[in-house]
Amino acid sequence: MTDQAGRQTWRVDVEGYPLDLPIVPINPEFAISLMMVIDLGVTFGEHIGKELARKIAPLQPDIIVGPATLGIPVAIEVTRALGLDDYVVLQKSPKLHLGDALVQTLTSITSKGEQRILLDRAAIPLIEGKRVVVVDDVVASGSSLKGALDLVRQAGGNVVGAGVILTEAQDWRETLGADAETLVSLAHIPQFAPGADGVWQPIPGT
Ligand SMILES: O=P(O)(O)OC[C@H]1O[C@H](OP(=O)(O)OP(=O)(O)O)[C@H](O)[C@@H]1O
């Protein structure tokens, strides 16, 4: 199948909500399927919030933490579905008030180069000594989620789990180590290599 831009797509069933994700080349030999959660509307947001909340509720979190950018709508929807109010965003842009923020560095699969994630010191009381679940849209290499988990622990949070809409391939298992055991997700996507006919094919084992 192709989308309106003529890109080959990959169908994934997100707990009963089918999505056709465009396959986007990273280089001529390797491609990923891309889910832009901010382009999928409020019905999808409500759906993933409810479904992740159902899996996260038994962990009895006090607070949900989400890394910018695409982890923000996930954190908001999961917080709403759990009946909580506050949530914490880990920022990526170095805003003026974040001069003395807690910091971790990371490299994600989709964004080029090294990034920093920052926790505003004013948000530490929402995390310190609290049961924390970190959520994001996708985990692939696991670098972003690991950075977020490290930052929460640096702030004194008791990480009781993590949740993503999609797991992508398997690299995140090694990166996250023991935290991979407590990760909940709604669906899985493989990564892609070109077939003989030039059509992208899922890489076996991803
Ligand atoms: O497991 P990883 O290899 O780290 O990849 C997953 C991360 O990549 C994307 O974020 P990105 O860095 O593109 O930033 P964005 O959310 O600001 O788009 C996505 O939102 C995850 O946070």
Structure description:
This protein has a single domain (40-186), classed as Rossmann fold, CATH 3.40.50.2020. Helix content is 24%, strand content 35%. The protein is built from five helices and twelve strands. It has a five-stranded parallel beta sheet, with helices on both faces. Strands 1-2-3 form a three-stranded antiparallel beta sheet. A hairpin with a 5-residue loop joins strand 11 (192-194) and strand 12 (200-202). The radius of gyration is 17 Å and the shape is globular. The mean pLDDT is 94. 1-O-pyrophosphono-5-O-phosphono-alpha-D-ribofuranose binds next to strand 8 and helix 4. 1-O-pyrophosphono-5-O-phosphono-alpha-D-ribofuranose (PRP) binds at residues 67-71, 92, 108-111, 136-145, 172.
Q: How many runs of DSSP E, i.e. beta strands?
A: 12
Q: What profile does the largest beta sheet have?
A: 5 strands, parallel
Shape: globular
Residue ranges: pLDDT <50 for 5 or more in a row?
none
Name the beta content range: 25-35%
Strand order of the largest sheet: 5-4-8-9-10
Task: List the main descriptive attributes of the protein structure presented here.
binds 1-O-pyrophosphono-5-O-phosphono-alpha-D-ribofuranose, alpha/beta, 206 residues, Rossmann fold, 5-stranded parallel beta sheet
